[in-house]
Design brief:
alpha+beta, OB fold (Dihydrolipoamide Acetyltransferase, E2P), five-stranded antiparallel beta sheet, 10 helices, 12 strands
Amino acid sequence: MTGNAEGQSSIDRAIDRFVECQARHGQPPPGDPISDEDLATVADAISPLRFPDELLAVWARFQGEKGGLAAGYRLLPAKYGLEAWQMGKERLIWPLCLFPIAYESHHFVWIELQDDFDLGGGAIWKGCYGYLDVTQIAPTLADLINAIVDSWDAGIIFPSSPGSEGLIQDDDRWLRLTSQRFGPPRAIDISKRYIWPRRWKRLSGLEDGVPFPPGAITRIGDLASSPDWQAGRPVVVEGEVRTLMAGPGSRCVVDDGTGTLEVWVPADLPEFADSDHPGPTQVELVRSSGAARESDIRSLQVDLTGLVRGGSLEAAQEAVTEFMAGFDMTEAEATAVSVRWSGKSE
């Protein structure tokens, strides 16, 4: 935390400005500070990750507050933020290094966590549960609070009616203000874990092919009832893999005992061909059209065998040509996003 000449940190100054702003605009005062017991509980639950000092400074003054920082930024008490974080951890819905600090109507605000080896946390992100993009809205919590205070004073944020706790935010003016201060919003598609910032991968335990947690695995037999699968969002399956066709990438079938799934693995996932890893394979994938099924390929193989054995080589060649003319090898039931190994031996 950066201090001024009197030794007060930037986050403490921002908190003071916010408390004064709320009083000035007739808003309820912030809630109570976090108790030592609750702080110990949430800190232990996220260990070895750590909360940034700025968040601890806010919690030392207040947690959930009645008036709301701004529309869409109503602070969560730490224990409720922990519940949401643990929900995300079970299925890796979002990076583990993003901790929910505010929530309103399916929209979360997260702060980046850190650990003993990486003190670079503190950036503020916002996104909607069930949507893929998260957007960085401020580089620090102090920056966000100062922008909110200035927005109140500029009439960008205001009560929906006199004396109401409901707030309205002029989104266009808010975006102009934050873009001028922090630059254009930075968005990341969290469904594509391979494009996550390196620190997100490391702090979420996904670096160097670390297996997905058991709670993130969906059984193939349950895909039909999976909201993520039906919506085209990534899911993770785990099972035995067999290759159907070779090529620039590879077309395969994953079998987990509850069902089978045809998967196209793009050529930019070379680790898929690595056979040195024991145990089942975990494939993170998204649903696709599935134009040509394994049964189509097996049927062609049977037909070709009969034609060749009967001496009809020309007819066999015509059958292959006709089949391939209408067959896109990449159009399997699903497309792989990433591949790793469970680490379980047979």
